[in-house]
Design brief:
The protein has 370 residues and is of the alpha/beta class. 68% of the residues lie in helices and 9% in strands. It starts with a helix and ends with a helix.
Amino acid sequence: MKRFLGFVKKEFIHIFRDYRTLIILFGIPAVQILVFGFVVSTDIKDAGVAILDLSRDETTQKLTDKILSSGFFRKTGELLNYNDIDRIFKKGNTKAVIIFEKDLGSRLFREGTASVNIIADGSEPNVATLVSNYISAIISDFNREMNKTLLSSSPVVQPEVRMYFNPSLKSHFMFVPGVITLIMILICALMTSVTITREKEFGTMEVLLVSPLKPSQIILGKVAPYFLLSFINIITILILSWFVFGLPVRGSLILLLLETMLYIMMSLTLGILISTVSKTMQQAIFISAIGMMLPTILLSGFIFPIENMPKVYDYFSSILPPRYFIVIIKNIMIKGTGLQYVWKETLIIALMTLIFMALSIKKFSLRLQQ
């Protein structure tokens, strides 16, 4: 028994001496509970809403104040006419437009009933459903208050919900763009990082480093085949999404392909950068697959709205390239927007590509000097 206890004591000592084991035992569970606890949420917070008030009377002002003071919504614009609805939705920061019909207040008191139109952005079906349900609940609470005034038991303001871009609320309008974003960064980063790390493990990378080829030429030579294959892959995915799921490209197909090429290049250069800091293929696989998958799913806005997360997660997600490509692909594919609506995200991905490329070349140059 004494020998057994001594053996157990030795194992404890080994565990506490290895910081990597301690991170796995205590660090990862703590990080996961913090991430999942705050990110995986069905609550609405600071969702953008725009108001089209055709009545502009006391009743619509009270209802507007009640909606905006609830803490769930923030006002993103005051619309003048119906033509502004498409424009404000394409900007991307508005989840719903609330339309008050003309003479709502006078009709309410004259006929005892009136309607409020809620138009939600159906490109994100889950968020659209939540936003419309929250607004409808606030209107129902407003009805109860009005019922006391009018001594009526029937609802006085009736919400009418419609979905923009995705009237049927088909879930693949959300999942197809998100899956494209996830697949591309995982496959591109994983394949390039594993390929280069394998050559480092087998010793063939040293041959390349002492060859007449420059580090930039080595990187471009590694990237070129995977760039072409990934581009063929994305065309196949777009064709499948069109014929199988009925998801067409409403915007410019050429612009979408150019944006996709930029995203593929960024993902490939990220894979190159991962290979420069990985000593083994296992490390490269862990960083590329596991290290990129969870952040992309949870913090990129793929499934869970970023505005619902604490501010610290917003800052962290801002360094994730998938966050920006999801905005681009949804705007072009589903909303049919042009470059004027996605130029900021395009510029950010282009800058990331240049940064990853420069860091990769620098690290290769350092290995060459050594």
